[in-house]
């Protein structure tokens, strides 16, 4: 097990820069998830750590040693691929033991390790099968088993759950978390699914256009996004963004969304927001769950909106309602018993302690 | 409300006539069978004729009887050839040459194809195309320059290459290696990239990736290439005709026509028998390896 450090990592493919200088410290035993939309450079970063891609610039340090020129086989990392990449001509046992056999481990040790990994993953009765006789979920377990038996310094996962159906994905997600809690190996996990990132990670690294947007614990990313991209990317349904202006009134600062709608800015934020009063290019951000029918406990400040509901999406435990403010579609999450119906006017409460103000020029959260 | 009412006697509009799926299928099958039968008859006629002729005596062949019927069947031709040490020498030469050529071809073509399909190096794509282009140059264009080269080689080194059966081991691979490399490049290219990356991560070097992953996974392709190399070497006629002359050095196809045609006397019965027996080994190989040839071993490697 090991700590991994990336220092100003750059990857260039011909003229395009896929990764544009990434700094990241991953400590021992940590579970780090790289998340971002496709083409953000997260997979390329992972492949550079694995040694499958050359590093154009910068340094990758594993356990205090620069590994830029170390071939993948000597980096002592194990990787789980999106399409599993099991050896089709080998049985599950042979697939899992392949790496150990290449390193000439004694037979008894191989049997012991494969047996143990198979037990952790509950695939003991599949050891004699060929990959083509397995279901998608079982193949994914075998691919993980192949990584576990090696007892490597680092686990690398490249979108391992994308090929599974939704239900199985949730199940395997828990499985991966359970395995990591048991083996505690440093893990770097790439996904485009923010839910996977939030649920699995000790720390989430949000990437965009080859750069890191923000690094942080799932809770911090969710409640204190640094940029508009992170605010919009994390959370589902996505955060509402509404163009706004800041005004000073005799009761203090207020944020104006339209001619009819304006909210008082909570006291704690007034100082931070004051320099932006009166200027253009500000966006008000609020998550759907902070725009509800009932007044939740604990929140100190509320603003109220009279909304003409356009679309209602019942989800079971909650209902999503869509309406328009200032030509922008806005989503709120209300109690299923609140009686939301298309065409109705609803009074919704906005929890202003959870609002964000975004500077459109820098795209950063103020 | 005349617009809405329909005349009562009008039947509901008849449904559009789509061709039925099963009728289409039956039609396609009928034509397939028709053409397959025509082709089968066309291609099987010569061997059948050879077989019939091989059972006849010379007298019966030269007598103007029905060529498609044997009146006095005899195994004399078979006995004569199988007891003739000369014919057996040809057979042995052919077998040795073909087996060694297949081995040489595979030893060159498989690593070459692996390197060209997986180890992206400067000029690898051009080289791959170049290899295929060499296959397009016919041997009829090459045998005279080759002959000249061997003669010059003899002048300088005193090593005689002409009229030695083993010189064919040098010459045949020029025909088999390019095509086999090309086949193998195709097969290796169909192996998902993640599979060699997984092996790399598991600690394999390139040689181990080739021998422990690529060769087993591409076995059907390897067998196809082997069959091809064997068939080409076994049936090769022009090169042995040009480069070997004395009867102990000849391979089967050349041996048959040089020893069984004396002047303008054609020993048809034995020629047909010799050719039929000569066609047997490739036939046996095809029959045995056909299953491998068809089996898809890559199933289950990745998400299907």
How would you concisely characterize the structure shown here?
Chain A is α+β, with helices and mostly antiparallel strands.
Question: What does this entry look like structurally?
Answer:
The complex is a heterodimer of chains A (366) and B (304). With 366 residues, chain A is an alpha+beta fold. Chain A has helices at residues 42-50, 92-102, 107-121, 136-149, 166-183, 194-200, 218-223, 228-233, 267-273, and strands at residues 4-13, 16-26, 31-35, 57-62, 65-66, 77-80, 154-158, 186-191, 203-208, 211-216, 240-249, 252-256, 262-264, 282-286, 291-292, 302-308, 311-314, 319-325, 328-334, 345-351, 356-359, 364-365. In chain A, a hairpin with a 2-residue loop joins strand 11 (240-249) and strand 12 (252-256). In chain A, helix 2 packs across helix 3 and helix 2 packs parallel to helix 4. The longest helix of chain A has 18 residues, at 166-183. Chain B is mostly helical and 304 residues long. Chain B folds into two domains: 45-74, no CATH class; 85-294, MetI-like (MetI-like fold, Orthogonal Bundle). Chain B has helices spanning 21-54, 58-62, 76-82, 85-118, 124-135, 139-157, 167-171, 173-189, 193-201, 206-217, 219-235, 238-243, 252-260, 268-294; strands spanning 261-262, 265-266. Chain B has a two-stranded antiparallel ribbon. Chain B is flat, with a radius of gyration of 28 Å. Residues 1-8 and 296-304 of chain B have low confidence and may be disordered. The interface between A and B is medium-sized, with 34 and 26 residues.
């Amino acid at each position: 097990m090991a700590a991994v450090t990336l220092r100003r990592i750059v990857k260039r493919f011909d003229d395009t820069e896929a990764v544009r200088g990434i700094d990241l410290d991953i400590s021992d035993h940590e579970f780090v998830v790289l998340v971002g939309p496709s083409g953000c450079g997260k997979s390329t970063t992972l492949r550079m750590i694995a040694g499958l891609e050359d590093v154009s610039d910068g340094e990758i340090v594993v356990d205090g040693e620069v590994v830029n020129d170390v071939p993948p086989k000597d980096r002592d990392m194990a990787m789980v691929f999106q399409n599993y990449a099991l050896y089709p001509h080998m049985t599950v046992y042979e697939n899992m033991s392949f790496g150990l056999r290449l390193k000439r481990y004694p037979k008894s040790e191989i049997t012991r390790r494969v047996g143990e990994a198979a037990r952790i993953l509950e695939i003991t009765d599949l050891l004699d099968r060929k990959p083509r006789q397995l279901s998608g979920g079982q193949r994914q377990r075998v691919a993980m088993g192949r990584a576990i038996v090696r007892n490597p310094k680092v686990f690398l996962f490249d979108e391992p759950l994308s090929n599974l159906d939704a239900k199985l994905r949730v199940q395997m997600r828990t499985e991966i978390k359970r395995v990591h809690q048991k083996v505690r190996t440093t893990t770097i996990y790439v996904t485009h699914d923010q839910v996977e990132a939030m649920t699995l990670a000790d720390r989430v690294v949000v990437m965009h256009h080859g750069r890191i947007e923000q690094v942080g614990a799932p809770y911090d990313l969710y409640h204190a996004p640094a940029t508009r991209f992170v605010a919009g990317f994390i959370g589902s349904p996505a955060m509402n963004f509404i163009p706004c202006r800041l005004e000073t009134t005799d009761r203090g600062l207020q944020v104006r969304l339209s001619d009819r709608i304006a909210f008082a800015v909570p006291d704690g934020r007034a100082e931070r927001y004051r320099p932006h009063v009166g200027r253009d290019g500000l966006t008000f951000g609020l998550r759907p769950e902070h725009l509800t029918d009932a007044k939740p406990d604990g929140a100190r400040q509320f603003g109220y909106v009279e909304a003409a509901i356009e679309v209602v999406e019942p989800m079971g435990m909650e209902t999503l309602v869509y309406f328009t403010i200032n030509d922008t579609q806005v989503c709120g999450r209300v109690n299923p018993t609140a009686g939301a119906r298309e065409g109705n006017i609803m009074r919704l409460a906005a929890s202003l302690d959870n609002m964000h103000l975004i500077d459109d020029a820098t795209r950063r959260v103020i | 409300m005349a617009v809405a009412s329909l005349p009562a006697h009008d039947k509901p509009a008849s449904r559009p006539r789509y061709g039925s799926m099963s009728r289409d299928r039956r039609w396609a099958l009928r034509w397939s069978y028709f053409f397959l039968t025509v082709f089968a008859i066309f291609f099987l006629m010569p061997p059948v004729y050879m077989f019939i002729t091989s059972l006849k005596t010379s007298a019966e062949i030269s007598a103007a009887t029905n060529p498609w019927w044997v009146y006095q069947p005899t195994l004399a031709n078979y006995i004569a050839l199988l007891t003739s040490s000369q014919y057996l020498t040809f057979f042995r030469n052919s077998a040795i040459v073909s087996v060694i050529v297949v081995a040489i071809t595979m030893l060159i073509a498989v690593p070459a194809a692996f390197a060209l399909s997986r180890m992206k190096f400067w000029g690898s794509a051009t080289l791959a195309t170049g290899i295929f282009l060499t296959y397009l140059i016919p041997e009829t264009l090459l045998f005279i320059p080759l002959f000249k080269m061997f003669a010059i080689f003899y002048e300088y080194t005193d090593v005689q290459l002409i009229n030695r059966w083993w010189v064919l081991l040098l010459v045949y691979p020029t025909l088999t290696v390019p095509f086999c490399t090309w086949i193998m490049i195709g097969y290796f290219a169909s192996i998902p990239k993640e599979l060699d990356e997984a092996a790399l991560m598991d600690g394999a070097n390139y040689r181990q990736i080739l021998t422990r992953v690529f060769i087993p996974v591409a076995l059907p392709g390897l067998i196809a290439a082997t069959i091809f190399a064997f068939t080409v070497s076994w049936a090769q006629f022009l090169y042995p005709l040009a480069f070997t002359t004395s009867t102990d050095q000849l391979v089967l196809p050349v041996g048959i026509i040089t020893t069984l045609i004396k002047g303008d006397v054609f020993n048809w019965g034995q020629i047909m028998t010799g050719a039929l027996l000569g066609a047997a080994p490739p036939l046996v190989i095809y029959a045995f390896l056909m299953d491998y040839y068809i089996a898809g071993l890559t199933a289950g490697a990745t998400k299907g």
